[in-house]
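Bench notes, afternoon.
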Amino acid sequence: MKRDQSPVLPGDGATDYARYMRTEALLGLQRSPAEMIHRDELLFQVVHQSTELWLKLAAAELVESVARVDAGELVAAEALLGRAILGVRLVTDQMEMLRYLSPADFQAMQPALGNGSGAESPGWRQVQTLSRRLGRAFHDHLDARGLAPSSLPDLDPTDPTHRLAEAMVEWDERVSSWRVRHYQVALRIGGHPPAGTPGSPANMLAKLVGHRFFPELWQVRLHTPDAESAALH
């Protein structure tokens, strides 16, 4: 007997899938062929709109991760941060699609972008704000335990505090990798002179590559016995 496939959810769309996923609205967010001045606007919009969606998810995981740190639930906080890390990894990976844009193609479609800049991304701004909030929550946790960041290497690797600190370093690293990829793409398709060239937009991107949300966690790694031993050799 064939199961009734009639939609039961409210909303637009011929199926419940379309109604739940709001596919009509989602697939209507890109410029139509009649609006495009270059066919690769679709590629450019899909990459950046999906980036905003992944960043929205990453931000939601960061919000909950901070709440779990505040509640002393570090194992849960680490797992949630891991989900945010994977979201940024996927954002970085999908930038590979932009290798199909040539500088000439990008220049041809640039009038459609107006004065838009990736720095205006709401998802990116949320991630910045929430990363700083996570850092503060972690410091409050250390204070509550009577620990200093310098004592983290002495903790058992299975200690939830140690594991969360490692996850925070990985988050920093993933975000930095995304910045590096963004910088490389800007040079490749944006036609920007490399960093160090006066007036180049790439200068700001290059400066951000070295930024860290949790510099004290990286500094601790420079003073571990292994690091000091390596420095002597």
